[in-house]
Design goal:
By secondary structure, the protein is an alpha/beta fold. The protein is built from five helices and seven strands, in the order E-H-E-H-E-E-E-H-E-H-E-H. Helix content is 50%, strand content 23%. The relative contact order is 0.14.
Length: 149
């Protein structure tokens, strides 16, 4: 049985949404629930809730850049691994995205490649490790509180 993963797909182009969704459905080991938003405001709101396993964030969302959304999410305490997607190759933007907290940066032409699949698996594994760490910290805190009581 495949593991369920919730993905926030921030994409303002319906064709790119369809292509990305189809590529995700082809990945083994996971069944994806895709939450699709089209605006920077919707993306920021959803990311601040920290209730998705991974975010695929388009770099260009109308007049606002995905990089601005990424920085906003980081400032709001977003714990969700974010992969930036772009239509062009740009080493400077790649570095800026990674410096701002993205876990990866992919050209949209790579969506059907093994690199895309590997980036998704890595981000989901990273999210699982972070969740396990938080659960362990919560349990330790509860145990300390019991000991003090």
């Amino acid at each position: 049985m495949n593991k369920l993963a919730r993905i926030l797909l921030v994409e303002d182009d319906e064709d790119d949404y369809v292509l990305t969704s189809e590529a995700l459905q082809l990945l083994d080991s996971y069944q994806f629930e895709i939450l699709w938003v089209t605006s920077p405001q919707q993306a920021s709101e959803k990311l601040s809730q920290n209730d998705v396993d991974i975010c695929l964030l388009d770099n260009q969302l109308g007049a606002k850049s995905g990089l601005a959304v990424l920085k906003d999410a980081q400032q709001r305490g977003c714990l969700t691994p974010i992969i930036m997607l772009t239509g062009q190759t740009d080493a400077t933007l790649d570095k800026s995205a990674l410096d701002a907290g993205a876990v990866d940066y992919l050209n949209k032409q790579e969506i059907t490649t093994e690199r895309f699949a590997r980036a998704i698996r890595y981000a989901l594994a990273r999210n699982d490790v972070a969740k396990e760490r938080l659960e362990r910290l919560k349990a330790q805190t509860q145990n300390r509180a019991k000991d003090r009581f």
